[in-house]
Amino acid sequence: MPLVTRPANLNNHNFRKVSTNCVRWFPQIISKLDPMGERNALRAMGLPSAASQEQITQTWRQLSRQWHPDKFQDPKQKAEAQAKFMDIKEAYDKLSVIHSKRKRQNSRSRPVDADNDEL
Length: 119
Description:
Blueprint lengths: L11 H21 L5 H8 L7 H15 L7 H34 L11
């Protein structure tokens, strides 16, 4: 028995068309479910999801040096490098803001010391 059953009104051609459209739009839907853009920023910089602020900064410096537009002479390569450089900078800014917010929230929400029962 198939895991996914199709409605009776969909023939094979229409079912393939619908499933092809789903495959095409699925990544866009998933990226929209990342409201803060953290996954996309991590992907743009090639970092794992558990990257520390030090790793983010180190990778940003390395990628910035690699993709700095002044290193390229050809106008096409320079334009591509400019776009990539801006993507890297936006990703770094976004990740830095997210990490600093989390750090502030975690410092505020620390539980009261277990030894100190007085409030």
